[in-house]
Design goal:
Strand order of the largest sheet: 1-8-5-10-4-3-2
CATH topology: Jelly Rolls
Helix content: 25-40%
Number of helices: 10
Distance between the termini: 33 Å
Radius of gyration: 18 Å
CATH class: Mainly Beta
Structural class: alpha+beta
CATH superfamily: q2cbj1_9rhob like domain
CATH architecture: Sandwich
Shape: globular
Number of domains: 1
């Protein structure tokens, strides 16, 4: 059962009015923005506990985790196994961002987590998937990725690095439409911003903005929850397998159910990770 904001002592934001122009300006400009202190540290710690348990489960079964570079993994999971799922998708800032950028009929298509372990190396600069025509020709963003850290990120943990504004770059010469040639690396390195989020923060970005994970020189993992959301015309749901049991689905408020692209099942089925192109290029974890 999902933990509520009140149960976990999250910052009360329901009365806050978020500025749509600021949100859209950030995502159409830099390609990333954030809300600091959206949830309490206690809420974030509960999220971390869930990720740790799910990660151990995923590593124990074939296809449960996909490598995204040496000592770096991604796991797609079932929303109801993240106790704060309802809190996250009903957070006023998350709802405002989704509606502003993706429209009233936005669709939740993915929840999972990245885990860079100690010893994880630099990833190549990349996009999470090829840019669709809605972006390359229509100049419109039709998907977003929300991230929540399970640790207070420090410089030695291999922080996330992003090259602002590159969501609009042409993909000429990009391998699989995702991986730019190394001749473009100086451009990204000149623009690069390194992010050091704290537990309870939420960030949101276009997954098309060129980014990478960096070297984790610490003795700690740096788990990050990922929530993927699409506009109605996006097709990222085809890469994922969002499932809910009938009992959990029926318990959800209608304001959540109306935004889900999912399967409703009698019993949760193990997810075999399908988004594996990155593994082919980045090397096995």
């Amino acid at each position: 059962m999902a933990t509520t904001l009140e149960d976990r002592g999250a910052v009360a934001t329901g009365a806050t009015v978020y500025d749509v122009a600021t949100i859209m300006g950030a995502l159409y400009g830099d390609g990333i923005t954030a809300l600091r202190g959206a949830f309490s540290r206690e809420w974030a710690q509960t999220m971390r506990e869930d990720i740790d348990e799910l990660f151990a489960d995923a590593l124990a079964r074939p296809g449960g985790a996909v490598g995204r570079g040496p000592k770096r993994y991604y796991v797609e999971t079932h929303p109801e196994r993240i106790r704060g799922f309802v809190d996250l998708v009903t957070h006023p800032w998350v709802e405002t961002v989704c509606t502003a950028v993706l429209g009233q009929d936005y669709r939740i298509v993915e929840i999972g987590f990245d885990v860079p372990l100690p010893g994880a190396l630099h990833q190549p600069w990349h996009r999470d998937f090829p840019a669709p025509e809605e972006t390359t020709k229509g100049r419109r963003l039709n998907s977003l990725a929300f991230n929540l850290t399970g640790v207070d990120t420090t410089e030695d943990m291999g922080p996330f690095e992003i090259a602002p504004g590159t969501q609009w770059d042409e993909a000429t010469g990009f391998e699989h439409g995702m991986f730019p040639p190394k001749s473009l690396y100086p451009r990204y390195e000149a623009r690069a911003q390194r992010k050091l989020p704290k537990m309870g923060d939420i960030s949101v970005r276009s997954a098309l903005t060129i980014h990478r994970g960096t070297v984790n020189r610490s003795d700690q993992a740096r788990p990050v929850l990922v929530l993927g959301v699409d506009a109605p015309d996006a097709r990222n749901a085809e890469r994922h397998d969002l499932q809910f049991t009938r009992a959990f689905y029926d318990s959800l408020p209608e304001r959540i159910r109306t935004h889900l692209t999912c399967r409703v099942v009698d019993e949760l089925e193990p997810i075999v990770q399908a988004h594996t192109i990155e593994g082919l290029v980045m090397g096995e974890a």
